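Thread: "does anyone have the structure for this chain?"

Original post by V.I.:
We have the sequence but no experimental structure in hand. Need at least a predicted one for the grant figures.
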Amino acid sequence: MQLTLVVPELIWPEPDDRHTLDALRCPGLTTLIARSRLRRRPPQSLEATLADTFGLSENVPYAAFRLLGEASAPTAADACWLCADPVHLRLHQERLILADGGSLGIALDEAREIAGELGRQFADIGRFHVATADRWYLQLAGDPDLGHFDVLPLSAVAGRRLGRQLPETPQARALRQLLNEVQMVLHGLPANQRRDNDGRPTINSLWLWGAGVLPAAQAVDFAGIWSSDPLARGIGRAFGVPVQALPDNAAELLSRLARATRAPAGSRQLLVLDALQGPVQYEDADAYRDALHELEERWFAPLQRDLARGRIKRLQLHASTAYATLAWESRCSEQWQLWRRPLPLAATAQTLARDEG
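Reply from O.Q.:
Generated one for you, tokens below.
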């Protein structure tokens, strides 16, 4: 059996933050990566890292894939979809600070009310669809040129400063005009007035990204996907890979795979462990440490032991981080190379920071 783990923001992005890093004790993780071969590439988003694992490269239609992974998705396989996620923007020292919908406490009824009004105001542009309170979509109705632009995924900008929302390119001109009109409509909505009266941040913009149409199905090198991430689930569904919810821990995963009749012994399984992403985006060191310790107990330590014992033949660990996009790979025999001593995560962060230059 071969496992591929995708773990965004695995290494805390501030290498000199000794308070956060020195307190971390993760012997399973540090042993695993010490006895693995490391390959590093320039930093990129979780979404781009997921796309890479499936062999997808340029112009990935993230919105169409992500929508397919939602619990309830409209059937419009040949449509051009955009992610139209609700956000709050505020100006700080001449730069925009973006808070994503997951941090805004949006109620589902509130989301539907706002998206419904946007749909009425912009019916000629397309149709809005609310999958969850913080994941919205726009199905374009007319000019396909509106769907040709390059914007970072929301995960790459949430909690961070940004210079502008949309690129200053001719291709994005119509989209910038639409976004300006959307922001004016949002400003006057009763739902936002209620949020403002209650002292809550308003939904004053949308993050428009990931435009495109679902591609034709293709063969991929996975026999199963285990994730709650809608993008990973959607790519799996698009390419005919069985998709299941992430089990509670490694022991449950291996037990279920051992009983499965559709998972041959050499099959490759993909797991997305994204519990660290939110804490890193919003610089919550306590939440990061708690989430990492839980991942260590439930996943990293048992998987390292199972790899060393031969229950797993090969394990890949992909991590999109501020330092680089990191990929560790190890076979069971390499976990017995005892001379390769584990380093504390603080030392790993320092090494990664030095190697950036």
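V.I.: this helps a lot. The longest helix spans residues 285-309.
O.Q.: and The mean pLDDT is 89.
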